[in-house]
Design goal:
Length: about 325
Amino acid sequence: MSRTLSAEMQAVADAEVVRPIYLIDMDFPSGDVRLWSGSGLLTSPTGSSVITNGGFTGNLDGWTVVTFGTGTVTYSNNAAVLTAGAGFSNRVFINQSFDTIAGKKYAIKLNTSGIQLRVRVRNALTNADILPLTYYDAGTNTILFTATSTRTNLHLRNQNEGTVTIDHADVYETELYTGVGDLLAIGSVRESTDLNANGTTITLTGVKTSLVAIARDEDYQGEKATIKLGAMDETANVVTSPVTLFTGFMDTMTISDNGEKSTIQVTVENKLIAFARKYVRRYTDNDQRIDHPTDKGFEYVTSIQDTEIVWGKVTPETSTTRVITEPVRTNA
């Protein structure tokens, strides 16, 4: 079965040096556990880009273009082309503001060619610099920053005589992953043409006591687990936002301890398993208040369930004979 590579995976295919990595996201009630198949801490971009048209697909929509003097900004082959003249008075730049979460870390993924590009990141509400104007050489660059408000501005400038071409300028939320290296094992992830709920397993060896406590004490069943595939370049930067290989629900977690090390094996069921699950709901007050705590529509169901209601005939309580007398008419 053939597939068309996404722009992100094409970037991986085009990279000169690629090291595949796996990332595991497990959602527990007390917080998320994020692990990756390497050593140390890894800040990895996740999800979709938070800016508009970071790939310059078809046009420059979403970007504000500013030119001075003889500087120009044009669009060509899904890229923004920034050409500056000699001197500061002929500079050009494009910028865009986007929604962020204060305190959350983000990653700018740049792919450029030509001369150096200057990059600035600012708090869009106060115009205070988060990252001051900094030069970046042509090629692929990953720039990390922590948002300081709900709106952030990305500013891409060319102020040197010459041209810089920007193929991609995407911004992703990031997550911090803890490296477990060879201590992580992932079962086979199978794909089928039928609607089969094929699950998999995640095995962790030599895990910390804190993770064992989570596996032992928390109500994890039914919580989400995700397996992602990413890639690193020769400088240990994540080439692109990892793609999701498998998403499912944690089912059973087996803990083995031989006195020297602990091993946790997690069985993860495919999301399609939900189609085989029976959902039992009842027309009772308690059941209704699970979803609608203030709804009293079923409040009297229990009290009337054995009540006999006679419909269409006189009930015993109303069977008393009623005599209606009319005044006697007399002929005047």
